[in-house]
Write a structure and sequence with these properties.
The protein is built from four helices and no strands. By secondary structure, the chain is mostly helical. The longest helix is centred in the C-terminal third of the chain and has 21 residues. The termini are far apart.
């Protein structure tokens, strides 16, 4: 029987390595930078507690921490597919944060 239910994220196991590899900091930073630019995230510290772990020094570092956590949670490797997946997720998260903290 054919189902009309489609996964949100297609299964790309054939493209992934059999063993998870360590994320390189530069790869995560590039992805975070693309998200910061795409979502027009301002410099500052307002997002540290909402997105980061609390030890970050800037919004960019908070986004970087969020990206690293999201990549691990979703089992994604940095790249175009990860950007396409994380962009709407971070946009939604920022929207939720802005509703909670209107001064952002």
């Amino acid at each position: 029987m054919h189902s009309n239910i489609f996964p949100i994220r297609p299964n790309h196991t054939h493209l992934e390595q059999t063993e998870p590899r360590m994320l390189k900091r530069e790869e995560v930073r590039k992805l975070a930078a693309a998200l910061v630019i795409a979502l027009n995230i301002a410099p500052g510290k307002a997002l540290i507690l909402s997105l980061g772990q609390g030890h970050e020094a800037s919004n960019f570092e908070a986004v970087e921490s969020w990206v690293r956590t999201a990549l691990a949670r979703e089992q994604l490797q940095p790249g175009r597919f990860a950007l396409q997946t994380l962009l709407p997720a971070l946009d939604s998260r920022l929207h939720t944060i802005s509703e909670t903290l209107p001064q952002l």
